[in-house]
Design a protein that fits this description.
The complex is a heterodimer of chains A (251) and B (409).
Chain A lengths: L1 H26 L2 H12 L3 E12 L2 E12 L3 E6 L8 E5 L2 E5 L7 E3 L15 H5 L4 H4 E11 L2 E10 L8 E7 L5 E7 L5 E13 L2 E11 L6 E11 L10 H4 L2
Antiparallel strand pairs in A: 1-2, 1-13, 2-3, 3-4, 4-5, 5-6, 7-8, 8-9, 9-10, 10-11, 11-12, 12-13
Chain B lengths: L1 H14 L1 H40 L3 E5 L15 E2 H9 L4 E16 L2 E10 L1 H7 L6 E4 L8 E5 H6 L7 E7 L5 E12 L4 H6 E5 H7 L5 E2 L1 E6 L3 H16 L3 E5 H4 L1 H38 L1 H9 L4 H37 L1 E2 L1 H4 L9 E2 L5 H27 L3 H5 L3
Parallel strand pairs in B: 4-9, 6-8
Antiparallel strand pairs in B: 1-11, 1-12, 2-10, 3-4, 3-7, 3-11, 5-8, 6-9, 7-8, 13-14
Helix pairs in contact in B: 1-12, 2-10, 2-12, 2-14, 3-8, 10-12, 10-14, 12-14
The chains are: A alpha+beta (251), B alpha+beta (409).
């Protein structure tokens, strides 16, 4: 008898949790999901170290880097591997600048140049330093749910509001629990697939689940894929504001 | 009898002066055109061979064996070991000169925008031994080794409003399959004979380009000048170098590399056929004139037949007339053609406007190449074809019956 009551209570609890979940899901608009997704990827400040491993028809190439970011708009990447040592990519005030130790001037990337491959990888400069205010650039639609890597995900479709974005159409799979993007497909307006992204491994930092290893493949290149592997990620660290200035870039 | 026929043939030529002149001019124009055409093709071929050897491929080019397969992906990491190749080539008696080169696509960062340009990393001290490189300097000087300097094509400099003393940042992919940028100072403007070299290319010291492209002591290609047959030399160098370097190399003669050069070689044979058609076209005038002469002189033919002249002799008579007109016309045509060729061979034909924007290894100013043997062959060829053409109407004269011919008014 006791067992039977216990079963009933348990069943009721499960139903209630399910109903609450459904109600919560129903209440979440696509925009809310995107806000949560952007919030997860945006830090007041952060410092990261990692490597970019590109595999193509010529073999495997590894470049190491360290990066600093502040909010949604400022970021600095410095390459530390021998072949690229000292090269830096700064994104600030909506502009992207490249610093090369052998060049006497900074190179400002704009327009189509932002879509150039970074260090021959499948990642463009825009992918690496892209702004994280998705809703200002895209209209979003929730089109369904799917399980990815054993996790329930929302499927969101984005269509660009402006012509200035790298990918006019995006389809992303966002974790319903952590709001981390597990998978992404980036296409032209006509639907031609340009790039694919998938998270292979995650890590937990400051109670947030974040990508540790992300695989990106540029569909315009044959037999090419790039893995971005983070070995260290510190959130809300003290950063000197000077890091994100042009003056600092040339030091 | 033959002497008499020759005499009669000459007399007949002078009796129909205007028609003879017309036939002769047709043959002369055809012969002149062929002599000039062949001289132009020969000139283009020689010019292209010279440009290929000097600027693009050498007489023999040494590259990494995989480079050609992946060329469209700009595989500048597929290099060759310059030091070891240098040591091996220095010992070869059939090699007269050789230079290391690194050809790399890049962009000039000028006024906030990227402009495509092709860079050549070169050892300028060796370039001086390899070709008359200094003669291409229009203004300024050759860049110094070890310094961030460049020599730029004069048209590229003009298009980007750059001059001596200006600094340009170049951006390119590296042999480490990354990107890099470097600032170079323009110290010289170059004017090469090939239009594309002036509008797309810049030259920088080999050591700085190696540093920029992360190449250590590697180069992309070695261009070699040889004493004898290029194909044989290429095979001999390959047999020598591959075991020494322990890796496969792509070693080819220039005439096996350039598709355009192959086309020009093929064009030469096509022009031989075109020459035959030119002459056949000219010969139709002779056929027409001879036919008209035959009908005009029908009574005379009848009289000659009635007096006992055989059909074969009549054929020979008209054939000889055709041969003489052809021989004189062809001689005049060949001489005029040779004269024009020699004149233009000295002063050149300027195709700068026509070739601007065309990516070919041909110089903007072309010099037709006079060749005595070719000219003599064209002469013989013209006489034979034109004379053979006169056989058609001449044989008609032999078939005319004297009785019928005498009825002609």
């Amino acid at each position: 008898m006791y067992r039977s009551n216990n079963m009933k209570i348990r069943m009721m609890a499960i139903v209630m949790v399910a109903l609450v979940s459904i109600a919560t899901v129903g209440a979440m608009s696509a925009e809310d999901i995107v806000r949560q997704m952007d919030a997860l990827e945006t830090f007041d400040t952060s410092y990261a170290e990692g490597e970019i491993v590109t595999t193509d028809r010529f073999g495997v190439k590894t470049s190491t880097f360290r990066s600093w970011s502040r909010g949604a708009y400022d970021s600095l990447i410095e390459f530390t591997s021998v072949a690229e040592r000292g090269q830096k990519v700064l994104r600030t005030e909506g502009e992207l600048y490249l610093f090369y130790p052998d060049a006497e001037e900074l190179i400002r990337l704009q327009g189509a140049a932002l879509r150039q491959s970074m260090l021959g990888s499948d990642i463009s400069y825009e992918d690496m330093t892209g702004e994280k205010d998705t809703l200002s650039q895209y209209d979003v639609k929730l089109v369904g749910n799917e399980r990815i890597s054993g996790r329930d995900c929302y499927i969101l479709e984005f269509s660009a509001k402006t012509r200035t974005v790298a990918y006019p159409m995006q389809k992303v799979w966002v974790d319903t629990g952590t709001y981390m993007v597990w998978k992404g497909e980036f296409s032209t307006k006509a639907g031609r697939l340009l790039k694919e992204m998938a998270v292979l491994e995650t890590m937990t930092v400051d109670n947030r689940t974040l990508p540790k290893i992300t695989k990106i493949s540029d569909k315009m290149k044959r037999d090419s894929a790039t893995e971005m592997r983070l070995s260290r990620l510190d959130i809300d660290v003290d950063l000197d504001p000077v890091i994100f200035t042009l003056q600092n870039l040339t030091w | 009898m033959t002497m008499k026929l020759i005499h009669v043939a000459f007399r007949n030529i002078s009796r129909n002066r205007r028609r003879s002149l017309l036939s002769g001019i047709a043959i002369a124009v055809a012969s002149m055109s062929i002599v000039f055409l062949f001289a132009m093709v020969q000139g283009m071929r020689d010019d292209m061979a010279q440009n290929l050897a000097t600027y693009y491929t050498g007489e023999v080019r040494i590259r990494n064996a995989q480079y050609e397969e992946y060329e469209r992906y700009n595989p500048i990491h597929l290099t060759v070991d310059w030091q070891r190749i240098d040591q091996a080539l220095a010992k070869r008696s059939d090699v007269t000169a050789y230079v290391p080169r690194i050809l790399f696509p890049s962009a000039f960062y000028v006024n906030g925008g990227n402009h495509p340009a092709v860079g050549i990393g070169a050892d300028f001290s060796r370039e001086a031994e390899y070709s008359d490189f200094a003669a291409s300097i229009k203004e300024g000087r050759i860049p110094d080794a070890g310094k961030n300097e460049m020599l730029i094509g004069s048209v590229l400099a003009r298009d980007l409003k750059l001059g001596i003393g200006d600094k340009v940042t170049i951006i390119s992919s590296t042999a480490a399959r990354g990107n890099n940028a470097m600032t170079l100072e323009i110290v010289g403007l170059a004017a090469f004979p090939v239009a594309s070299l002036n509008s797309q290319f810049f030259w920088a010291p080999l050591d700085r380009v190696q540093h920029f492209l992360r190449m250590d002591n590697e180069v992309l290609e070695v261009l070699v000048m040889v004493e004898d047959d290029e194909r044989k030399a290429a095979a001999a160098i390959k047999a020598d170098l591959e075991p020494l370097l322990g890796s496969a190399l792509d070693i080819k003669a220039f005439n096996d590399i350039s598709m355009m050069y192959g086309f020009i070689e093929l064009a030469q044979y096509i022009y031989y056929f075109i020459g035959v058609f030119f002459l056949l076209l000219g010969s139709t005038v002779i056929i027409n004139t001879t036919m008209m002469v035959i009908y005009e002189r029908m009574r005379e033919i009848g009289t000659l037949g009635a007096l006992g002249m055989h059909g074969k002799e009549l054929t020979r008579l008209f054939f000889l007339e055709g041969v003489f007109i052809s021989a004189i016309g062809a001689a005049v045509g060949v001489l005029v053609g040779a004269g024009i060729t020699v004149y233009l061979g000295k002063f050149g034909l300027n195709f700068t406007d026509a070739l601007s924007g065309i990516d070919m290894e041909i110089s903007s100013v072309l010099y037709p190449r006079f060749n005595l043997w070719t000219t003599l062959i064209v002469y013989v060829y013209s006489v034979v074809i034109s004379a053979a053409a006169t056989l058609i109407p001449s044989r008609k004269a032999s078939r005319i019956e004297p009785v019928e011919a005498l009825r002609y008014v």
